[in-house]
Design a protein that fits this description.
Length: 329
């Protein structure tokens, strides 16, 4: 895999400082039942890294001491961690909102057939990746049969009430571009998703989040291999919007690795960049009572992926629309 880390470190990205900490995002491991082209984690079925229960217990202690409101669980496929369900139950007992970043196909894997019901019973909010409403595009990015398996997962969730009005069960979908381009307008694409998935397949959901692909790990390696890395960076920088800086996710969230080390965001975690106010790796155990307010955030050139055009965060676009050129040629 071609490493983009040395290409990103020298940056003119504006300085950022943290606001009040609200969300704890935890990567429960790199094992996944898929190997997606755009994956910034480089997750796959062959990966073995996974968070221990001791580290999860530390997450819960940290959340209690820091007044965290939201647990955002990611991976790989976070559900493949053997302690996933225990963590969800414990977090809900602490009155934490729990988000599961789900790839949908995991809901159909052997021994996980009851997973959808478990998520519903614990009122877990689902953020599910579905990069297109056309089968050939999804399978081209994620592998043969992934689209149909994703539809099966969505139907299971809808049958339990996910995405339905007044059910209290939130189902949001995520779109990533198929290549080195900016996402289209989130509102317009959400309307198209709802029309296409509803008309063709009877699928309903709450909201669509559009995310820019980050020039790191597997996607970044492909950019370098096809001599498109610098073009993509010019696209991101040319579409940078200062007004998006106030809404980027790193201002209210920290990211914890499967080993318990803390980073300013999930992308920094994948690059091995420590917290902005530190000179090296810091474990969550060292930060249980530390205030994060107004601390500097570590930045590099990949941060332009969060501020380009309408902006991009774990909760989707930051601004209503963008009108910059969205593709490189």
């Amino acid at each position: 895999m071609r490493d983009t880390f040395p290409l990103l470190l020298e940056t003119d990205f504006p300085m950022l400082r943290r606001g009040k900490l609200d969300t704890l995002q935890a990567n429960l491991g790199y094992r996944c039942n898929q190997s997606c082209f755009h994956c910034h984690v480089a997750a796959s079925p062959k990966r073995t890294e996974e968070m221990s229960w001791d580290t999860m217990a530390l997450l819960l202690r940290f959340a209690g001491r820091q007044g965290i409101a939201t647990f955002d669980l990611t991976g790989g496929a976070p559900e493949l961690n053997p302690h996933f369900r225990r963590l969800v139950v414990a977090a809900r007992l602490q009155k934490l909102k729990v988000i599961d970043r789900c790839n949908l196909t995991i809901l159909n894997e052997p021994v996980h057939e009851d997973l959808a019901g478990f998520l519903a019973a614990n009122e877990v909010e689902i953020v599910a990746s579905l990069p297109c409403y056309f089968e050939e595009n999804v399978d081209g990015q994620r592998g043969d049969g992934v689209f149909q398996s994703s539809l099966t997962g969505l139907r299971k969730l809808n049958a339990l009430g996910y995405g339905l009005p007044d059910s209290g069960l939130t189902l949001n979908l995520v779109f990533n571009p198929l290549g080195p381009s900016l996402p289209p307008d989130q509102g317009a694409l959400e309307a198209a998703y709802k029309e296409q998935l509803g008309t063709r397949y009877g699928i309903v959901f709450n909201h669509l989040f559009v995310l820019a692909n980050m020039p790191i790990q597997r996607f970044g390696s492909q950019l370098v291999s096809h001599n498109k890395f610098h073009d993509y960076m010019r696209l991101l920088k040319g579409a940078h919007r200062e007004e998006n800086l106030s809404g980027v996710m790193c201002r209210t969230m920290i990211s914890v690795s499967w080993q318990g080390f803390v980073h300013d965001c999930d992308f920094n975690q994948m690059l091995g960049l420590p917290l902005g106010h530190t000179s090296g790796p810091v474990h969550l155990a060292e930060l249980l009572t530390r205030s994060f307010d107004d601390l500097p955030i570590r930045t590099a050139d990949h941060c332009y992926g969060c501020t380009a055009g309408q902006g991009s965060s774990c909760g989707g676009a930051l601004a209503p629309t963008h009108d910059e050129t969205s593709e490189i040629v």
